[in-house]
Structure formats: structure tokens, C-alpha cells
Task: inverse folding
């Protein structure tokens, strides 16, 4: 059986709580995602502590700056040996090329295309006309041409991206079980739909971390896949 594609988003302010939760659901997930909230609060020390659980670490820092600065940041996180790191595709081709060149040999670098908390109205307000679908495909193409391993997109676009980038690595967040609370997510699909669309990684946070019984929630999601 292939590896469990669920990466639990540990967006929790306390390190001990994050560690305890990860330990509890470890048998029902394939990896752990540490994002901005976690990294700003706990830095390298926090990553080392969570890595002790033995699951692959997805360091979701969504780097977005000039190429030289992003390459320097990538070098600085080398020691943490992340399995996956994110940059923003809108940082441009040179930035993505330099990020990939600076990444560790076994680290997948994936580009965030259009955040799953945005819809087409939000996109228009940033000055980008057209559909979410077109914007994601355009940025996926740019990330591919820059030599990245894959992209981050919503489950609404993943099948289309998969069609044009057969061996890409596709990270899909913004997932909600049927009838799950959306919160700030606007382009949500179920974990099963994302997997069927060709997602390589399913990022799931609040449906597990905020559940009354996180273990039961993780198990129930795993069973739908
Ligand atoms: O890069 C990401 O992981 C990401 C990209 C994106 O477009 N949307 C998105 O929600 N995420 C992350 O995925 C996680 C989703 O969390 P939940 O909405 O709680 O499941 C959060 O940690 C976000 O930072």
C-alpha cells in the first residue's frame, strides 16, 4: 500500500500541545506540516522536537522574496532536513529556480499558486482577471518550467494540473469532510475528491486539530480515502 497522503497541519500555538496531538494521531497520518504560526513561535528548536516523532516534515514557510533572499532562507533550513518546502509561485521564475538550487537533495520544493482562502473576486481585487482555474494552471506552468517538484493548489484544480504535468507533486490543502466547517477556506473539496483528482499530499488541519476527538476524526478521514 502506498504511504498515507495525509499531512496534519500543526497550526497550534503551544509546542507541547502540538507534540501531544501529533503523537496521538501518528498512526493515521503520513506526515506533519509545520507552518508560519508554528515556525514563528518555535523556530528550529520546535521543528527538531516534532521531527523526533519520526514522521516526514513539511516546512510550509511560503517563501516569497527576491531570489537571493529566498535562496539564503532555503540554505538556512537545510539542517532541518524537511521533506517538503513551499515558496510562492508569484515570486517568479528566477526566485523558484534559485530556491530549488539551494534546497537539499531530498527536499521537494513546491510552489503555492492561488491560496485556497481566495476566490475569483479576491483574485480580481489583486488585479488578476480571469478564473481561479486559469490562474492556477498558469502558475503551475511557471513552476514546472522553473524546475520545481510540484505545486500547492485547491482540490478544484488538481485534476486539471495533473493532466498537464503528469509526474508533478501536488499538495492540496483546504480540505473538508462532507458538511465540514469551511472557516476561511473558499475553494474546499473533500479529501477523497482531492485524492481522486491526483493529489500527492492532503493537508488537513482544523478538521482534525479542532475536532472533539482528533483521533476519531483522523481515522474517519483516513477511511474515506
Ligand atoms: O501551503 C499550504 O499548506 C496552504 C496553502 C493554501 O493555499 N491554503 C492552505 O490552507 N494552506 C495551509 O493548509 C492548512 C489548512 O488548514 P485547515 O484549513 O485548518 O485544514 C493551513 O496550515 C494553511 O496554512
Result:
Amino acid at each position: 500500500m502506498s504511504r498515507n497522503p495525509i499531512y496534519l497541519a500543526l497550526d497550534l500555538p503551544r509546542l507541547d500541545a502540538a507534540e501531544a496531538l501529533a503523537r496521538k494521531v501518528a498512526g493515521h497520518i503520513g506526515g506533519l506540516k509545520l507552518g508560519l504560526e508554528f515556525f514563528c513561535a518555535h523556530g528550529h528548536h520546535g521543528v527538531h522536537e516534532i521531527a523526533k516523532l519520526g514522521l516526514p516534515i513539511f516546512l510550509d514557510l511560503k517563501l516569497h522574496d527576491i531570489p537571493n533572499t529566498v535562496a539564503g532562507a532555503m540554505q538556512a533550513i537545510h539542517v532541518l532536513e524537511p521533506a517538503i518546502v513551499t515558496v510562492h509561485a508569484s515570486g517568479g521564475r528566477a526566485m523558484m529556480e534559485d530556491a530549488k538550487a539551494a534546497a537539499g537533495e531530498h527536499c521537494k520544493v513546491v510552489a503555492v499558486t492561488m491560496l485556497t482562502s481566495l476566490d475569483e473576486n479576491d483574485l480580481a481585487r489583486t488585479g488578476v482577471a480571469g478564473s481561479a482555474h486559469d490562474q492556477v494552471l498558469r502558475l503551475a506552468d511557471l513552476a514546472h518550467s522553473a524546475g520545481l517538484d510540484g505545486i500547492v493548489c485547491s482540490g478544484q484544480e488538481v485534476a486539471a494540473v495533473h493532466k498537464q504535468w503528469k509526474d508533478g507533486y501536488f499538495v492540496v490543502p483546504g480540505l473538508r469532510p462532507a458538511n465540514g466547517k469551511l472557516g476561511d477556506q473558499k475553494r474546499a473539496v473533500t479529501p477523497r475528491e482531492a485524492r481522486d483528482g491526483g493529489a500527492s499530499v492532503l493537508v488537513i488541519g482544523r478538521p482534525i486539530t479542532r475536532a472533539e476527538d482528533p483521533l476519531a476524526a483522523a481515522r474517519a478521514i483516513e477511511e474515506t480515502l
User: Anything to note?
Assistant: The mean pLDDT is 97. Strands lie at 6-9, 31-34, 57-63, 84-88, 108-112, 150-152, 169-172, 201-204. The chain has one domain: 6-224.
